[in-house]
UniProtKB/TrEMBL annotation:
SUPFAM superfamilies the UniProt entry points to: P-loop containing nucleoside triphosphate hydrolases
Organism (species): Periophthalmus magnuspinnatus
The protein, known as: Sulfotransferase
Iron listed as a keyword: no
Boundaries of every Sulfotransferase domain copy: 51-301
Amino acid sequence: MSEEEELDYHTAIQKAGKQLCRFPLVTVRGVPLMCHIADNFEHIWAFTPDPSDLLIATYPKAGTTWTQEIVDLLLNNGDAEACMRAPTPVRSPFLEIFSPKPIPSGLDLLKKMTPPRMIKTHLPFQLVPLGFWENKCKTIYVARNAKDNLVSYYHFDRMNQTQPEPGPWDSYIHKFMQGDVGWGSWYDHVKSYWAEREKRNILYLFYEDMKENPRREVERIMRYLGLSLSDEVISQIVELTSFKSMKENPMSNYSCVPKLVFDDSISPFMRKGEVGDWRNHFTPEQSKMFDKDYKEKMKDVDIPFRDLI
């Protein structure tokens, strides 16, 4: 993408001005999505990727930006300068995102890029355009412990002024459990990709594994992409994608998004990036209630999540 083609997100969002608000959710094929996404879903569904395109899929707040940065660095042989060429949403467009004009949609950005492209989505498996599977695109999916994912999503919904008002913590837990949040049920999401991982050659990763041993998981991604980088470059990538490094990196910390959308005075986009932070939010009663519901909804799968109870 040339300098002339690079889109200034900050200016575009400022121009959208008063059109920006907390947009309501509209159900698409049983999944609640922000209204602008729902209104344009036919265009999203019709998107045809190139076979060389790479899809990075997650439930919201499950390590998406982290994975995007790892992949970009791998594809650029650990060249930090190359990965400073543009903010994350420009380097790796958000497939389904639509906002008031002149803010560019994910599809607008993708049209300006030459494959191979790195594409982000939060869509559950059944809503991902069929072209990704028909063209056998490589797909990386990252799943995160439900309780930590819930906490992170709650704080994100507080600061993201375009998503529905989350309300108080104790009621948000129930919204999450019932799937009454953007992109729907966490349970259905993680299970849908897990069920298809072997048939579709999906690399299914866990946030907790990435935190426990980032080098091991970076190497897993490298092998999946068919790359072979030196130990020195891998070490550099691990360092550049640490939470501290990314939080300080203006190309990955979403500081390109102005306060009228991401109000970081409420909560920063990159908040903690920890495993087990749920213990600072759930009361014992809430945890017991959540665990009971979790066991019921996950009884039909053997996804090896850790640090839940």
